[in-house]
Amino acid sequence: MAVQTIASATGIDLGPAAALSCRECGHRVPLGPVFACEECFGPLEVAYDLPAGSPQELKDKIAAGPQSIWRYAPLLPVPADVAAKPNLNPGFTRLIQADRLAADLGVDAGNLYVKDDSGNPTHSFKDRVVAIALEAARAFGFTTLSCSSTGNLAGAVGAAAARAGLRSCVFIPYDLEQGKVIMAAVYGGDVVGIEGTYDDVNRFCSELIGDPIGEGWGFTNVNLRPYYAEGSKTLAYEICEQLGWQLPDNLIIPVASGSQLTKIDKGLKELIKLGLVEDKPYKIFGAQAEGCSPVSSAYKDGHDVVRPVRPDTIAKSLAIGNPADGPYVLDITRRTGGAVEDVNDEQVVDAIKQLARTEGVFAETAGGVTFGVLKKLVEDGRISPSETTVAINTGDGLKTLDAVAPTTGPTATIRPNLDSFREAGLA
Amino acid sequence: MAVQTIASATGIDLGPAAALSCRECGHRVPLGPVFACEECFGPLEVAYDLPAGSPQELKDKIAAGPQSIWRYAPLLPVPADVAAKPNLNPGFTRLIQADRLAADLGVDAGNLYVKDDSGNPTHSFKDRVVAIALEAARAFGFTTLSCSSTGNLAGAVGAAAARAGLRSCVFIPYDLEQGKVIMAAVYGGDVVGIEGTYDDVNRFCSELIGDPIGEGWGFTNVNLRPYYAEGSKTLAYEICEQLGWQLPDNLIIPVASGSQLTKIDKGLKELIKLGLVEDKPYKIFGAQAEGCSPVSSAYKDGHDVVRPVRPDTIAKSLAIGNPADGPYVLDITRRTGGAVEDVNDEQVVDAIKQLARTEGVFAETAGGVTFGVLKKLVEDGRISPSETTVAINTGDGLKTLDAVAPTTGPTATIRPNLDSFREAGLA
Q: How far apart are the CA of A336 and the nearest CA of chain B, in angstroms?
């Protein structure tokens, strides 16, 4: 990846964001549309001047804030007046106490929760990260919002740009699910199918950003990535606030690039540092599909390096063969005493149906991966029935109907009379 | 429709619900699973002992309540502890200030709002009504939750029953959109396709309910209809609360059975009576698809009686040819100075795309009908640019992809290199 010229920090108001800092060597640079350290090529992330004041004051301020991620604006790289600007106001989705799923899996009642991010405006967690990237794009004066995407991100970028009045141009693998393609295109921006995998799309975007064509373009997950990625912290904030400002014992998080898991861990550590939750051990588990499990494989083999793979799974939103944050996922799951685990496509479909049948939540394939891994972890004892566990459903089953379509349909088709109903054997 | 034996009111705790009262003759009966007046066959609705106390006390209580329809539990036929029971906790969806759509339509900035009910758990307003029906089903000891449905209701019933641990068996026209069929079936209940229209499905359910097979069955929109319908009042409550406890000047509401429009009017009148909003005139407009516009036709012809039609429209969730509450819709729209209007299928698709392009909201065809009618009303001056107008998006575009699929897709498909991108003419 090419290192871009560092933009001047003058006049950039992104709230508590103070600078960008290299995750590897700690080198700091002013806020700008850059993503790789000029010293060591490590990834840059946002460094904050976190708010002063007592934990209770901050809790009260959050509780009085909007019913969206903007209640946590003092902890995010966004201006203080962000809620007043046209954006999709994502977040503050339901945390569901899942007692029927718990009973099915053998977890004690009251201990299992589903964080259901299908309730976001475009029905995936991507609305969170895009909302933050949009603010950065505005701050840096970009006029086109772009991304490489496995589908959900394309829809989230298209919708956010439409609402904000920016042009959008998104890049997707040409063979995505129809629902995701239409959802990306319906907002009126340009949608470009790329003949290749997501990793090919990603490489193309890196090329585009170094070319004069890409001037004025904010790629949410490339040159805006340091800001974008911070959006996932809000999942950590919401889960803890919704648990009554407590840390869960276990978190199960799907792993595509690994960014979400990494930033949720960052968010939890911030809450501890600010005194918003009591410090105690927690375990973070990563979930992958067997057909694209480079991080899970590295975890199981005891490696620190993640070897890229060519994805082959129905969980297309997790089909990133060369995950940028893979090494950090290994580090976090090992440090917290968690793990990275994977399930096959059949287990993905079974888990989607189990969650729907027990809790009325229809997850997309990525959710199937997460809940399939949850089942595996409970069965083999790595998650204890007596601990508090939160699993994240990051997307919506309506976007991946193909996964369940072959085994889901009407029980019977009848004529509109009682005899026909009796014949169907359902009375 | 057959009148059922009245259940005893003993031990039925549905909060402030005091009795059922006939909308036509005022005859009162105890709370029970009945829907038609034994005196005059008019529709029964819930009569309340509304809460005492000052408006400010009630506002404070609501503000301190959950982020769902249960914040309004003191105004609904549900027990006081309803939020603690397993249900989908729908509602409190986003009210979006739609300045870009307003600019497109010629409405003054700050005056147009979208109430986006696609944010509900199964992505339609039906989660509201089903949540209320579920409480009634529990109160009356029903073990199967059922309905006749054009799709959205089937999904909402399936999901709610799954979460509550009840059996579900829903009835739909056999030719529904695939997304809606799968969404109904994935929750593990029975889904029965009926060879006929929605009106045929509805007639079949009325027959079933009078048969011994139907014992123990709660049909959300038949024998639980008086309770179920009350769920739509929450749209009125939320809109007014989200506007800072003010009535809008105009409301645009889609008309299928007409129940939603009727109950929103009831909710607004309750808020005035309780002093939660200042009393002032408001206009209610009903929206239908040209291919199923019995109420709009009656409105335009100056009739009080609605003549049934055979539906032929892409807006299948509004395709009720014999709308039960049609006469009340005529009454309310005329009394408030509103109107009932309709748009054709092309206008429906255009409106879906306009809303997506300007506000990042992807509506289903019913939403397209509503926003198409909004456009018509603004263009012909029946809605003034200087008045506050709220239009309701009742469902999600992901469930009616077929409507936009022919005209929505990738702008281009390219090879992963800059030359190929330049050739596509998008640089």
A: 32
